[in-house]
Prior knowledge:
Blueprint: H1 2-34, H2 42-51, H3 57-81, H4 96-121, H5 126-129, E1 137-138, H6 143-150, E2 157-161, E3 167-172, H7 173-180, H8 204-214, E4 218-222, E5 228-233, H9 234-248
Parallel strand pairs: 1-2
Antiparallel strand pairs: 2-3, 4-5
Helix pairs in contact: 2-3, 3-4, 4-9, 6-7
Amino acid sequence: xxxxxxxxxxxxxxxLGGILPQLFAANVVLVVFNLIxxxxxxxxxxxxxxxxxxxxxxRATVIAARIGQAIALLFIAAGVATxxxxxxxxxxxxxxxxxxxxxxxxxxxxEMAYAVFKQTAETIRVGHIMAPRFLALxxxxxxxxxxxxxxxxxxxxxxxxxxxxxxxxxxxxxxxLKMSEAFPDRPLLELALQSPVISSEHTCSEAVETMRRxxxxxxxxxxxxxxxxxxxxxxxxxxxxxxxxxQSKKPQ
Length: 252
């Protein structure tokens, strides 16, 4: 019995002695891999931080992303090469390297596009892209009467205003239609949701952040007197900023 236990213990220690070096080697490889200067690895973010000391964050992100994409192409090339020239380091017919390279390339592209988009969004004023013509509903209008009004201009949400066109809340098209049969005489104000209001001088970046914070997709734009002068939606903001960002990358 004692001999059996001793043998099992010795076997366990032998196996453990073989596994620990392998685990250590695997961790070293992961650490080194993570330090490669390519997004989304930490090495790429360290490189961007270092570049940001000499230039703005957007340009630093673009440079770091380009370097990451170059490294990604090397990964893809190395993986493809193993199908023709097997090596001791990468083995034979390595399909992992191309997938890693493709992943790094796409993530770097996404990081770069977002950085350019964000910078562009910080330069565009809401007043330049808001919809100045829109359907506003009187806050004391009944739900039944509102159905006829919204049929003329189908929107996801409508601002409610008083006689001076001051903002009183937002109401969704879905909610109006949902309540129209059961409560046609109910005033729209009872269905209204409170929504933040922005000015035409706010930037698109600030508008997107406001939408994210309050969980809304449409914002009313008001003048200093509180009168609604336009509407801006998340689709407008993203499309306009993305278009201008793509134009800024084209050679002049």
